[in-house]
């Protein structure tokens, strides 16, 4: 059912071309693919956009960031067997008590698994490298519908299912649950060839929404949650101001075959303005825009699924969000209170903490404060792992 895609199998040069951000990590990191089956109760939209009409899709996405988000009309089961690709990295400094501990890293919208490696800008932005040096295994995944083909067997090709009806938060949660179930089983059949008994779910932005919803639906799955670029105070205005366009039209060479419901941010300056703030290397947003990934109309339209408290989740939670985050912090004065208030979504947690790196925007691991953020997160995780 599962199989391994090793560096040797596809050749390092192919891999570097497909994912230039592996940096110096070839020794300990490899591409892996999981084949997971899931069924989710996805939202049914009362007035779905015509999937062939980009104007209607853009209007639908914009409306999701308004006071009147798209109306839904119940749910319907969506199912499938999907490939989830990842970058898996092993500890560089083995710690016996963390020998079976793994962090699952889940990216936000218009990103993919490579964001956790720093987009090629060096070790200071590399989450894997930092975690691996503290004894953790790390697995950064491409959420369903994200990332590009990285070669391998036909079943390992990236899939782009129906963006509106299949690629939604409820499906991401079911797939995360299937992935964690596989990793907790000491079954040498799956891509990592071993089991894990401690699992930290680490999200960024929409990946944090999924983590929060996972904790609500499957409260036993994560032994700890680290929710970055996140709070329960979502500034809708930052999203509604964004111009989006179908990725197939904006970047035809890369995304030409994607359905129009896979959209992305149309303007480089807008992308920088919402994802970056304060102190950062000004070259990063340029590369970030050129290689940006997508978000689906279904993910944005069904956001409400991820905005409900995880009332029975008992394990520790840390929220880490840049003090200048345009989406989730109201600025230096009000950021910490927004993060503190986010604790209300986790009333049963054994431990709630938050941290707001100064001079830092939404993409916190791509700012100069990244090493401090990484240290703070690991100070938290190391208490429980
Ligand atoms: C596409 O959608 C827009 C906005 O809903 C609408 O005004 C336009 O007529 C549609 N175009 C076609 C060809 O259906
Ligand atoms: C992911 O995004 C990066 C840039 O953020 C890009 O270079 C890469 O081609 C994308 N695809 C995959 C499979 O990671
Ligand atoms: C799985 O194997 C690891 C060592 O590789 C061990 O620490 C852990 O307890 C095992 N878990 C289960 C559920 O058997
Ligand atoms: C943080 O939130 C808790 C309740 O969740 C509240 O009791 C406390 O007063 C808040 N602290 C600050 C500084 O806002």
Automatic annotation (TrEMBL):
One term of GO molecular function: hydrolase activity
Pfam family, one: Abhydrolase_6
Residue stretches spanning the membrane: none
Residue stretches making up the AB hydrolase-1 domain: 104-330
Keywords: Hydrolase, Signal
Annotated signal peptide: 1-18
Protein name: Alpha/Beta hydrolase protein
């Amino acid at each position: 059912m599962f199989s391994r895609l090793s560096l040797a199998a596809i050749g390092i040069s192919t891999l570097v071309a497909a994912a230039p951000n592996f940096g110096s990590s070839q020794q300990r990191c490899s591409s892996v693919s999981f084949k997971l089956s899931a069924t989710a109760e996805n939202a049914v939209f009362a007035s779905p956009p015509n999937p062939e009409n980009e104007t209607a899709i853009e209007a639908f996405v914009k409306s999701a960031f308004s006071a009147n988000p798209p109306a839904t009309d119940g749910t319907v089961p969506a199912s499938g067997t999907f490939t989830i690709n990842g970058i898996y990295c092993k500890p560089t400094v083995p710690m016996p008590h963390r020998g079976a501990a793994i962090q699952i890293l889940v990216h936000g919208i218009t990103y993919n698994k490579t964001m956790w490696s720093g987009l090629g800008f060096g070790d200071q932005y590399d989450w894997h490298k930092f975690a691996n040096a503290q004894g953790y295994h790390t697995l950064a995944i491409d959420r369903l519908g994200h990332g590009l083909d990285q070669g391998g067997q036909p079943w390992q090709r990236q899939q782009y299912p129906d963006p509106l009806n299949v690629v939604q938060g409820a499906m991401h949660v079911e797939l995360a649950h299937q992935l964690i179930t596989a990793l907790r089983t000491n079954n040498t059949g799956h891509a990592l060839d071993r089991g894990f008994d401690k699992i930290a779910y680490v999200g960024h932005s929409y990946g944090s929404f999924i983590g929060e919803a996972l904790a609500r639906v499957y409260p036993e799955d994560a032994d700890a949650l680290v929710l970055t670029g996140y709070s329960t105070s979502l500034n809708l205005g930052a999203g509604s101001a964004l111009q989006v366009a179908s990725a197939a039209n904006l970047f035809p060479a890369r995304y030409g075959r994607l359905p129009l419901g896979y959209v992305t941010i149309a303007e480089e300056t807008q992308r920088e303005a919402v994802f970056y703030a304060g102190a950062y290397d000004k070259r990063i947003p340029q590369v970030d825009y050129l290689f940006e990934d997508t978000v689906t109309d279904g993910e944005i339209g069904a956001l409400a699924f991820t905005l409900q408290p995880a009332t029975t989740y008992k394990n520790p939670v840390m929220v880490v969000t840049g003090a200048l985050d345009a989406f989730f912090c109201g600025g230096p004065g009000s950021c910490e209170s927004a993060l503190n208030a986010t604790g209300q979504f986790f009333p049963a947690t054994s431990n709630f903490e938050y941290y707001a790196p100064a001079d830092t925007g939404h993409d916190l691991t791509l700012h100069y404060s990244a090493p401090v953020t990484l240290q703070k997160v690991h100070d938290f995780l190391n208490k429980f792992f």
